[in-house]
Amino acid sequence: MDIEIVRQKLACAERGSKIEAVIIFVVACFDGMLRIGKKCPTVIHSLRVGSQLERFGARTETILAGFLHDVVEDTSCNEHTIFSIFGGEVGMLVRACSEDIRLKGAEQREDLFRRAELHGAEAVAIKVVDVADNLYSIGDVKQEWQDELILCGQRWLQLGERYLGFDALHCVELRNLLTGR
Fold first, then answer.
1. For the segment 64-94, what is each residue's pLDDT rounded down to a tens digit?
2. What pLDDT is attached to residue 26?
């Protein structure tokens, strides 16, 4: 990947150019990776999350972080690279929405809830959309993982309703997925 192309597009004030830059970066980071239990490329999930945030009218930095939300935990890219290329605001959102891979199980989930909540509405919005997309594509994964995702989804919905509002599109979509509508 040519990082200079990404940097040039990010330097442009136009929102579309910044989104194009992050898509180039994310596609390169996830090159060839497939989702667990699926035959579709891992990058599809990140592209859907960022696109949903754009559709819901999020700020540019939130959209960029939405595209990047799984890059640190699922690829060889590290936080330093995200901060260096995309800046502090996007980097902080990505940090708030990424699992700490040094932690496991319930401790990891609680840490993620805490960090997203401390960061506020934008981080919560990214996670609500992330979980909704995971639920949307839950199909052929192990039942125990489905059950855990549904429980996490319920918790993210509660946070989303508190930070974004009951009628926020992010929350409506997640609520519909959780209730089977």
1. 999 999 999 999 999 999 999 999 999 999 9
2. 95
Domain boundaries, the chain: 3-179
* pTM of the entire predicted model: 0.89
The residue with tokens 């597009």 is 9
Give pLDDT, residue 15: 80
* 61 close to 89: Cβ distance less than 8 angstroms: yes
> What fold, for 3-179?
Hypothetical protein af1432 (1.10.3210)
Q: Alpha helices, DSSP H only, in the chain?
A: 3-11, 15-29, 43-55, 60-68, 71-74, 79-86, 88-97, 105-119, 121-136, 143-164, 169-179
Q: How far apart are CA 127 and CA 96, in angstroms?
A: 9
DSSP secondary structure letter of residue 34:
B
Question: CB–CB of 29/58 below 8 Å?
Answer: no
Cα separation, 51 vs 136, in Å, equals 15
Tens-digit pLDDT profile for residues 28-44: 999 988 876 667 888 99
